[in-house]
Amino acid sequence: MPYIEEEIASQPQMWRQAAALLSSGSVAGLPEPGERIAVIGCGTSQFMAQTYARLREETGKGESDAFQASEFPLARRYDRVLAITRTGTTTEVVRTLDAIGDSTPTTVFTAEPTSDVVGLAKHAVILDFANERSVVQTRFATSTIALLRAHLGQDVEALAADAEAALALPVPREAFDTRQFTFLGTGWTVGLAHEAAHKLRESTQSWTESYAGMEYRHGANCVADERTLAWTFGEPAPNLVEDVRATGATVEVGERDALVELVRVHQLAVELAAAKGLDVDNPRNLTRSVILT
């Protein structure tokens, strides 16, 4: 059995552990209300950064920006910078934290307690219990978001229970006859829509795209037809579902929390990869960490 199957199934319990870690009082360096912050990452971690930054603003906790680590504006002033990196060895994150130095308080989220970034950041939040053997990142990313959502006062236990129920559901069967996948989000769920497309693309070599829902009608609909599956994350924009269906596409309306919908996409990625005869733990051209020389 691929490692990723157990890692996907364990996510609800990992979320509970992340929330318990926060409740233990051992986590330091999280943003205070009103602080102006930036969150950085690469790949999946970048999409988690986008998700948290927008959610923090939407809950009224303070101005929050998200950047690809390689594109972080060093001249811009923040009260705190957060970095998300599973292995702690991603070159762009290491370089950016090193460049920030002591000029701004930094906090890193990582699964590797002895990694390079731990010594570069002022604070480290270690989620080693959520580490993965698969190259494909699932539970570390979602556990980081679970901890941060708990810090925003959201109910992670209810989220975990919903995820357990969703894991028992079948994946959309239309996906196996799909030529092109589109994921649509709104507000804080746009980052998760991007991650869903990213995950399905790297795991199954599928043609995937992702957009803020209102952007769909600005060109993305040109590629939609009866072999397109569009999946909404969060409350769809008015008339969006009808407009997508008018192209001939099938629409999977995500009725659960967007983080739970992402878990369903994780399941789909595994089943679709198996149907294609792909090694879902080791997608082609990918490694657990991008280390540049």
Question: Would you kindly provide a written description of the structure presented here, covering whatever features stand out?
Answer:
This protein is of the alpha/beta class and 293 residues long. The protein has two domains: 3-155, Glucose-6-phosphate isomerase like protein, domain 1 (Rossmann fold); 169-276, Rossmann fold (3-Layer(aba) Sandwich). Helices cover 39% and strands 15% of the residues. The chain contains ten helices and nine strands. The chain has helices spanning 3-9, 11-23, 44-58, 91-100, 116-120, 139-151, 156-167, 190-204, 240-245, 258-276; strands at 37-41, 64-68, 80-84, 106-110, 123-126, 180-185, 207-212, 228-232, 250-253. A five-stranded parallel β-sheet has the order 2-1-3-4-5, with helices on both faces. It starts with a helix and ends in a 17-residue tail after the last helix. The mean pLDDT is 96.
In short:
By secondary structure, the protein is α/β, with parallel strands linked by helices. It contains ten helices and nine strands.
What is the topological layout?
Blueprint: H1 3-9, H2 11-23, E1 37-41, H3 44-58, E2 64-68, E3 80-84, H4 91-100, E4 106-110, H5 116-120, E5 123-126, H6 139-151, H7 156-167, E6 180-185, H8 190-204, E7 207-212, E8 228-232, H9 240-245, E9 250-253, H10 258-276
Parallel strand pairs: 1-2, 1-3, 3-4, 4-5, 6-7, 6-8, 8-9
Beginning-to-end CA distance, first to last residue: 34 Å
**Individual helix count:** 10
The quaternary state of the protein chains shown equals single chain
Provide the β-strand percentage band.
Answer: 15-25%
How many domains, in number, for the residues? 2
Mean pLDDT: 96
Report the CATH architecture of the largest domain.
3-Layer(aba) Sandwich
> Overall 3D geometry?
globular
Q: Class of the largest domain in CATH?
A: Alpha Beta
How many beta strands in the DSSP annotation? 9
| Biggest sheet character | 5 strands, parallel
Strand order of the largest sheet: 2-1-3-4-5
In the predicted model, the low-confidence regions spanning at least 5 consecutive residues are none
- Helix content range: 25-40%
Structural class: alpha/beta
CATH fold label of the largest domain: Rossmann fold
GO molecular function: carbohydrate derivative binding; isomerase activity
Pfam family, one: SIS
Protein name: Sugar isomerase
GO biological process, one term: carbohydrate derivative metabolic process
